[in-house]
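Recall the central idea of this unit: under ordinary conditions, the amino acid sequence of a chain determines the structure it adopts. In this exercise we apply that idea directly, starting from the sequence alone.
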Amino acid sequence: MTPAETVQIISLPDTNQEASTVFSLEGQLALITGGGTGLGFAIARSMVSAGARVVITGRREQPLRDAVAELGDKGHYMVNDVAERASLKELVSSIEATHGPIDILVNNAGINMKKPAVDVSDEDFDRIVHTNLNSVFSLTRICASRMLERQRGSIIMISSMAAYYGLDRVVAYAASKSAVEGMVKVLASEFSGKGVRVNAIAPGFIETPMTQTAMGGDPSRFARVISRTPMQKFGRPQDIGWAAVFLASEASRYVTGVSLPIDGGNSIGF
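Accordingly, the structure predicted from this sequence is:
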């Protein structure tokens, strides 16, 4: 090996950070779309517990008010529909003018529709993809442009088991989430060298009122889910919340471009 080909390995000092520090989000601001209920609220609650201030958004004001009342003085809200892409630049500008730079973006808001593929109209398909993919990219681009200037930030997408394997009757939703998975890889490759990490969480079957209603009326589907989930149980909303804290924190400083299944093994079950 010639001198020009010599590879030098630089040994960096071990900072030996405490767990309470490395997982802390103290001093950071998170924007969480669809944060008033369900998994979005669980993520907001976990991030507040980790020290972050959060701004949650959604279309309906009352659930946002109720959520902020529970989150305490570190919780704030703004009424916004992510599907109205023309409003997103003003949303981000207003949040940063009022609360400071956004350090963490969680693209949680999304919609679904269960219908046989042959019954899905072009309008149905476009509506799902517009909200779950097009709007996600628009908001991500706006936030990322500011994060890249500051050379720091964490962007977290919410994916789905529908992007991992074939789930019947959710063709538009699966297409949108599969596209989000691809977007994570591309954005991570473009942004990560400039201090902005991009990752996804893929929730499995989580105990929420919506899931309980759906499974309660479809016992055969419930049995199928449990049979292919090695942990033999549903997850809890806070399981998603703490995963988001990890991906936003210094603990995952060398993690980018991944999709993290929080699913009790469902994605690898048989």
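The chain has one domain: 23-206+236-264.
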